[in-house]
Amino acid sequence: MISSTIILAVPLMAFLTVLHTAVLPHFPVFGVVPSLPFLVALAWGLLRGATEGVIWAFIAGFFMDLFTAAPAGGLALTYMIAVLVAVLINEVLPANRFVVPMLLAAMATIIQQLLYTIYLGLFGYNMLQIITTSSLATIVLHTFLILPVYWLLFLIQRTVWPRPVEV
């Protein structure tokens, strides 16, 4: 089952990355561009578990890293860590399709941005001022944007991989 989702993740993340870099900058919300590849990887991890979430986060980060001038691997690494932490916390929380994804999206965004700031600092980039000015807007945007992404992926998952019927 995991291999079929990886086959789906590669073209989807490539498309979302091009959309993120070529189209979405023309339509910023609150002055920031949402990271759709990150949100899709996070939502998929919340729905399918840590293994698939981390794989999708790596693929999303890999494609996003191709379009940055920063040292390679930073987005892939921080996406994977943020999604893993969010999915592990999701496993101990009660099932909820509204509040929990929103809280975890906010938390994962905070983790990802903090780790990416540290990562860039290790390579001599001073992104602290730029990231802190847009962090709150990004956190709020991701908190609310996770819901349509999560619900759409939930619908796709239930359609393509329905639960077995037990009698």
Structure described in brief:
The chain is mainly α and 167 residues long.
Question: How is this structure best described in words?
Answer:
This protein is mainly α and 167 residues long. It has helices at 2-23, 36-48, 50-66, 74-92, 99-122, 128-160. The protein has one domain (2-151). It has 6 helices and no strands. α2 (36-48) crosses α6 (128-160). It is globular and about 60 Å long. The mean pLDDT is 92.
- What percent of residues are in strands? under 5%
Q: Could you tell me the radius of gyration in angstroms?
A: 16 Å
Shape from CA axes? Answer: globular
Structural class: mainly alpha
What is the topological layout?
Blueprint: H1 2-23, H2 36-48, H3 50-66, H4 74-92, H5 99-122, H6 128-160
Helix pairs in contact: 1-3, 2-3, 2-4, 2-6, 3-4, 4-5, 5-6
Q: Which features does this protein show?
A:
6 helices
